[in-house]
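ok so I'm stuck.
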Amino acid sequence: MPSVRAQPKVFFPWERRRGRRWLLVRGRQVLIVAAGLTCIALLREREARDAARRATRTTIAMTVDAVAAWKADHDGACPSSFGDLVVSGQLAAVPRDAWGRALRMACPARLDPHGFDVSSDGPDGIPGGLDRVK
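replied:
not stuck anymore, here's the structure
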């Protein structure tokens, strides 16, 4: 009787049974990708928050320059509101922070009776809150 050798069976990649090792490797890869995407999302959120703070500080700096110019033109008197600065042409519009709220001006300043303060309530919008921007 002739010897019948078992023919090796050919598998295509989609026909092969996958074992536990394959699940562990794929699970690890999925976990690494998920962790990477989470890190990217957190970094993007932090950068957006920092960008909003930088934009607000820039707006505050421009407003401080406009108030200083007003005081120089009016013998050291403070404007009653930002509307006075708009009417006089010192500012194009009432300044707003990155969160869409109007800035606050205190004249005279809390620490300097001859100066002024310009600030923002920050992202939470609470006046005098812990996250205000000066």
